[in-house]
Amino acid sequence: MKKISILILTIFSLLTASESFGQEHQWEFKKETKGIKVYTRDIADSNLKALKIIMDVEVSVNSIMSLLMNTESYPEWVYKCSYAGPIESTSILNTVDYYQIDFPWPFSDRDLYTHTITTIHPETGVITSTSTGVADFGPERAGFVRVPTHFNQWIITPVSPNQTHLEYFLQSTPGGSIPNWLVNLAADQGPIKSMLGFFKLAKRSPYAESGEWLSEYSKDTVEKKE
Q1: C-alpha closest to that of 172 among 2, 40, 1
Q2: 17: pLDDT confidence band, cut at 50, 70 and 90?
Q3: What element of type H or E holds 57?
Q4: Which of 17, 31, 139, 174 lies 20 to 30 angstroms, CA to CA, from 114?
Q5: Which residues lie closer than 8 Å to 206 by C-beta, 6 or more apart?
Q6: Where residue 183 sits, what CATH number does that domain have?
Q7: What pLDDT is attached to residue 209?
Q8: Does residue 191 belong to any structural domain of this protein?
């Protein structure tokens, strides 16, 4: 009963975060690069910008999820990510991960813990993967400033066996003393570089041939029902 209550509270908090994320200022189109459309909008009581990316790609959902769920691969494609690794999980759909992000001198590098919950709609196959920062999950590390707040979300919609529509949202506060213009500059450039790197990697072996994620999801669902 206690585990059920915790799960309900967790899902409610994610829904609340997503709902509040969608009720702020209007999105403003910024640019399009190789089919990747970038939008930003103001955040209430902040000089920082929230980010939205929309794209259609010739990559299967299976390949995308196989790479996305492989946290240790993130330094290969996430902009300025120097380390990423899993911390704990109750299933492939409920994980806690740890990341380290390079910042330019003279600023300190950042680190963060995220709690990710992934759901899949049983009829449409639309996958929603939502990550929220948990700043106090682990001890602070020397040489790093802990990211105090973080929210990102992937909405992954299968179009055909080899085509996928994606929406990505990001709202994060880096903490410490960093000029807002520098944060917004990184938010403007970093996601494009990350997405280009992501899909370049997703089209390669072993991700291009992967069927593992869907089989893992099916296994996890069966185990829950039992």
Answers
A1: 40
A2: very low
A3: strand 49-57
A4: 31
A5: 66
A6: 3.30.530.20
A7: 81
A8: yes
Task: Enumerate the β-bridge partners of residue 160.
Answer: 163
Strands 81-91 and 109-120 come out as unpaired
* pLDDT, position 52: 95
Residue 95 and residue 223 in contact, taking contact as beta carbons nearer than 8 Å: no
Q: Which domain holds residue 92?
A: 2-217
**225 in a domain, yes or no?**
no
Q: Which two three-digit tokens encode residue 162?
A: 């080899």
Could you give the number of structural domains in the chain?
Answer: 1
Q: Which amino acid is at 11?
A: I
In whole angstroms, give the CA distance from residue 40 to residue 139. Answer: 32
Report how far residue 6's alpha carbon sits from residue 103's, in angstroms, rounded to the nearest whole number: 35
Confidence of residue 151 (pLDDT cuts 50, 70, 90): very high
Helix (H, G, I), strand (E, B) or coil at 41: strand
* Token reading at 160: 């055909």
Task: Decide if 226 is inside a domain.
Answer: no
Kindly give the pairing relationship between strand 163-173 and strand 149-160. Answer: antiparallel
222 assigned to some structural domain: no
